[in-house]
Amino acid sequence: MTKQQSVKEITQLLLTDTLSEEQLQLLHMDERKGVQTALKKYLNRKEKAQQLETQFYRMLQYEQKAYQQGKNIVVGVDEVGRGPLAGPVVAAAVVLDKDVYLPGINDSKQMSRAKRESFYEQLTTSAVTYSFGIVDNQMIDQINIYQATIRAMKQAVAGLTHQPDHLLVDAVDLSDLPYSSEAIIKGDQKSISIAAASILAKVKRDNMMAELHQIYPQYGFDQNQGYGTKTHLAAITKYGITPYHRQSFAPIKS
């Protein structure tokens, strides 16, 4: 590492992440502004990567505990769509490989659409097995949203190609299933398997609502996903409801 190297060359070297501590110390002493800017960006990237790694392994604690108990097929289960005025409730169940490393995975609600879709692609290609459970608005109206959520989750678990040893579920009691299980409050922020299920369910449901938008564009389902936004409520007032609205939900039922 010498001053004969240009700022551009040093920037490229920093992107490769192959410099030794001694070389980095030399860069700290390089007075060129461009070098210091590149070094600061490098250090910020390293810090962010370390934070994501720490978060990932913290979210692996429930899975590791199950593995230590001899439970090899650990299933994450979550749902999306309890609150909307239209559309189904969608649950996902997923089994991740024991050696998976997905830094940055988190509750789907805390991620941008682009990041969710990126993780969705990774999960659908790398998961050991995954499955969806979908309960439509008509069944939600018949049995209530809580029971519909349980039904969707059980459908998702039943669709897996591997028999579960243990279920990690986001805040819903599925203890009547013939597998050990844990209902974890805010589980999509505490378990990588539940976070993965939340991403799968969210992207799946968003795609379904985008398809409904093609049929009923006036309701903005591609943007509101069926939730009761001001524009959605205004559309209901103006156009009435669709066959996909939940008639047991306020303000539709009134």
UniProtKB/TrEMBL annotation:
Manganese or magnesium. Binds 1 divalent metal ion per monomer in the absence of substrate. May bind a second metal ion after substrate binding. InterPro entries: RNase_HII (IPR022898), RNase_HII/HIII (IPR001352), RNase_HII/HIII_dom (IPR024567), RNaseH-like_sf (IPR012337), RNaseH_sf (IPR036397). Gene3D superfamilies: Ribonuclease H-like superfamily/Ribonuclease H. PROSITE patterns: RNASE_H_2 (PS51975). GO terms for biological process: DNA replication, removal of RNA primer; mismatch repair. GO terms for cellular component: cytoplasm; ribonuclease H2 complex. Keywords: Cytoplasm, Endonuclease, Hydrolase, Manganese, Metal-binding, Nuclease. It is found in: Cytoplasm. Pfam families: RNase_HII. It comes from the Bacteria. Its cofactor is Mn(2+); Mg(2+). Residues 72-254 form the RNase H type-2 domain. It catalyses: Endonucleolytic cleavage to 5'-phosphomonoester. Its main location: cytoplasm. One of its GO terms (molecular function) is RNA binding. Its EC number is 3.1.26.4. A divalent metal cation binds at residues 78-79, 170. Endonuclease that specifically degrades the RNA of RNA-DNA hybrids. NCBIfam families: PRK00015.1-1, PRK00015.1-3. PANTHER family: RIBONUCLEASE H2 SUBUNIT A (PTHR10954), RIBONUCLEASE HII (PTHR10954:SF18). Belongs to the RNase HII family. This is Ribonuclease HII.
